[in-house]
Amino acid sequence: MEQLQTALTTIKVLRSSVGQVFEALSNGLRADHGEENKETKYLCELQELLNTVGVSLRDVEQAINSLNPPPGPFNLASTSFLGQETTQERQALYSSLINSYKWTDKVHEYSNIAQSLLSQNNLKRSYTNASRGKRGRIQSSSHNLSPPQVDNVIGQFDRLFPDMTFTISRPFASNAVLQITLGHVLKAVVAFKGIMVEWIVVKGYNESMDLWTESRYKVFRKVTENAHAAMLHFYSPALPELALRSLMTWFHSLISLFNDPCKRCGLYLHSALPPTWRDFRTLEPFHQECKP
Ligand SMILES: [Zn+2]
Asked: Do residues 41 and 34 lie in contact, with contact meaning Cβ atoms separated by under 8 Å?
């Protein structure tokens, strides 16, 4: 690869020195050749430039001789058929194919980097960390309740918060996905791992619910962000049921999302948003900019 790079560089040098010859030729005799012996000076200059071309050419030849020809034709698999396309718009496929290959390579590279960064992340909650207690010894994984136990815990919330409805589904084997409707204000999807909350998406009351897309409304995207903060704040592998109850109590306080003024500035709107932050302890509403 390095040899190829050198060869390409020498070719560039050759092209530029040839270019200089033609430039000198096209300019002809110039004022800076003076009056005396101007032809001789001009010819000397050309001679010198041609010598440089000769040297550059020799460099190119040397660089090319040191290259090893590829062992056989490149295997392009079925993409080689793209070259036989006759219609104009399909011929462009090859370059977009190359681009998508490059793109996939990058995705691969970035995901490897992300993976190594995330594996150092202390906030990681499932699998390894969640089963360890504070003293580092391995506990029985208290978050790993059976589906009926999880249903039972969630059923308690149903009685605790009459203005919230909870719908449990299990699209991914045994782990529950909980759909919450909070009054007529908003909806949320909560993904569980055992009884631990893994992910929350908050959306508007009229939006379609799924785990993978965010709300089209800024206010609910902000609430989703804050719900993630709450999810991490209330995370407690030792007391997972209490953690979930605290999170749900916090979440329930959002029922007055559009009705409560900010505790600090007393206004309803700030930057066209209601107070989307709820204090974790007091549940008091604050604007993003006003939170303590
Ligand atoms: Zn405020």
From this structure: yes
Residues 6+ apart with CB under 8 A from 223: 186, 202, 254, 257, 276
Per the CB < 8 A criterion, the answer to whether 7 and 14 are in contact is no
Distance 287 CA to ligand 1 centre (A): 4
Phi/psi region, residue 170 (left: phi>0; alpha: psi -120 to 50; beta: rest), is beta
pLDDT digits (tens, 9 = 90+) for 198-225: 999 999 999 998 888 999 999 999 999 9
C-alpha 44 – ligand 1 centre gap (Å):
81
Please tell me whether the overall predicted TM-score, pTM, comes out greater than 0.85 for this model: no
Phi, psi of 162, rounded to the nearest 5 degrees: -65, -25
Distance in Å, CA 273 to ligand 1 centroid: 10
Give the list of residues 6+ apart from residue 17 with CB closer than 8 angstroms, or none: 49, 52, 53, 56
- pLDDT tens-digit map of 15-62: 999 999 999 888 888 877 777 888 888 889 899 999 999 999 999 999
